[in-house]
């Protein structure tokens, strides 16, 4: 299953509020993510506002498109938009640009034994 990692920039002046919002994500949003194929989804936040997201999904483009079909996503993106910097007139969910994975320990160990990770 493909692993996706992306970064976004949260306004450093709003880190506490951003963290608090993610302690109580709407149940409808959680359900939409799960139904859309987002698995093992985590967000990591550095003290300067660098946000790193990680998830696994069978097809990232399809998972993103599925989220676009959920009304709750539009409401969540509107609520969260003011927390982000440098979105260039996109919502955060559309500004996600997956990073290239250059190393995966499990994949390399598996290749030595002929297994699949």
From TrEMBL:
GO terms for biological process: rhamnose catabolic process. One of its GO terms (molecular function) is racemase and epimerase activity, acting on carbohydrates and derivatives. InterPro entries: Dimeric_a/b-barrel (IPR011008), Rham/fucose_mutarotase (IPR008000). SUPFAM superfamilies: Dimeric alpha+beta barrel. Pfam families: rhaM. PANTHER family: L-RHAMNOSE MUTAROTASE. This is L-rhamnose mutarotase. It comes from Micromonospora deserti.
């Amino acid at each position: 299953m493909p692993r996706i990692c992306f970064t976004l920039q949260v306004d450093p002046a709003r880190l506490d509020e951003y963290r608090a919002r993610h302690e109580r994500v709407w149940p409808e949003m959680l359900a939409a993510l799960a139904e859309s194929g987002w698995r093992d989804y985590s967000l990591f936040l550095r003290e300067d506002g660098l946000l790193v997201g990680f998830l696994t999904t069978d097809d990232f483009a399809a998972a993103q498109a599925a989220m676009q079909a959920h009304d709750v996503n539009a409401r969540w993106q509107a609520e969260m938009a003011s927390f982000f910097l440098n979105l260039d007139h996109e919502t955060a969910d559309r500004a996600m640009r997956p990073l290239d994975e250059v190393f995966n320990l499990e994949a390399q160990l598996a290749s030595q034994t002929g297994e699949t990770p």
